[in-house]
Design a protein that fits this description.
Length: about 350
């Protein structure tokens, strides 16, 4: 027996079949609710339970402590209704007609701009016209039923695209990245589902934009910046890209080449070596942002990369720089190791 969920403030409602999460049922019903990892870790899907009861699901206390539950918070990718419920969640506009689909693709090109980074260029069927929003990701569908998520690094086109660019960092022992760095070759066939996620530019705002990327978190930020610049977006944009050493800034020439009066690029290295011959900013990338923007009360932040960076930026920007919590948008790049606490909670 299912239960009915009503979303506030939109008053949209839908049935949730028994055993299904509130998020999945809402997406299936055509309502664009915020989400990213879908494993109970990133907290993008957090909503507030106003009425009714839920099973909070297999969520580790790190990501949903009892203090959050007491405030009514639930992670909707894991929460299942135990009664009819009313949930406060901010639905998203601008994604009408863009629904995930399963699509075959062929490897067109593999580049290695850094020892542990590969750039995959994929060719889709010519009649596909794949539509997505800059910042979204796809899930590769592996033969064993597992999935691996990668953000799209090229900007979209209104008519859709037939090619995708992805940035893959090698994680030794990784089910997919080991394949990419050893046996994957041009013309190999892959399958993916997408587009997925709600990490994209909020067009309804006119606030200045601060982009923060670490490592291959540059991929969706690249798509967002290129899309904004191509469309002539007038909002001020500042991009911070943080890595350990200069070789990790594997596409340094790309943002350096973006020329616009409203765009500024700030590369930051946390552990430069003498070989880097680095004379620019050093330290943690989110700290560089805080030095430049001590008052963030009037900006929007888009952060992508390692969870430790995203979590630190969220915490410190809100607590120390007056950033409104609802103006922080993020996509954490979670490895299987990062998801382990959630998996342990499920066992």
């Amino acid at each position: 027996m299912g239960h009915r969920v009503t979303l506030k403030p939109s008053a949209h409602s839908f049935e949730v079949p028994e055993g299904q999460s509130i998020l999945q049922a809402g997406l299936d019903a055509g309502f664009m609710m915020p989400y990213s990892c879908r494993t109970g870790v990133c907290r993008t899907c957090r909503g507030t339970l106003l009425e009714g009861r839920v099973d909070y699901g297999a969520v580790h206390p790190t990501y949903l402590p009892d203090s959050d539950k007491a405030k009514g918070y639930a992670l909707l990718c894991q929460a299942k209704p135990l009664s009819d419920v009313v949930v406060e969640v901010h639905e998203l506009a601008g994604v009408a007609g863009i629904r995930p689909r399963k699509i075959p693709c062929r490897v067109e090109k593999i580049e290695r701009p850094a020892p542990d980074v590969a750039i995959l260029n994929l060719r889709l069927p010519m009649n596909e016209n794949f539509r997505f929003l800059a910042g979204q990701y796809i899930d590769f569908l592996l033969k064993d039923g597992k999935r691996r998520s990668y953000s799209i690094a090229n900007p979209p086109r209104p008519e859709g695209v037939t090619a995708l660019e992805l940035h893959v960092r090698h994680t030794p022992g990784g089910a997919f990245t080991d394949q990419v760095f050893s046996t994957l070759k041009v013309r190999d066939l892959l399958r993916f589902e997408g587009p997925l996620g709600t990490f994209f530019l909020r067009e309804e705002s006119d606030k200045p934009i601060v982009m923060v990327a670490s490592g291959t978190g540059f991929a969706p930020i690249k798509a967002m910046c290129e899309s904004a610049l191509q469309r002539g977006l007038k909002r001020e944009m500042t991009l911070y890209w943080g890595c350990r050493a200069k070789r990790d800034l594997y596409m340094l020439d790309v943002p350096q080449g973006w020329k616009a009066d409203n765009f500024r690029f700030v590369p930051v290295l946390s552990d430069p070596t003498p070989e880097c011959q680095w004379i620019d900013r050093t330290g943690f990338v989110h700290r560089a942002v805080m030095r430049d923007f001590p008052d963030m009360s009037g900006v929007q932040v888009y952060a992508c990369g390692a969870p430790v960076m995203v979590d630190a930026a969220r915490r410190d920007f809100v607590a120390q720089c007056s950033l409104p919590a609802e103006e922080f948008f993020a996509d954490s790049f979670l490895t299987e190791a990062d998801k382990a606490p959630a998996a342990a909670a499920a066992s």
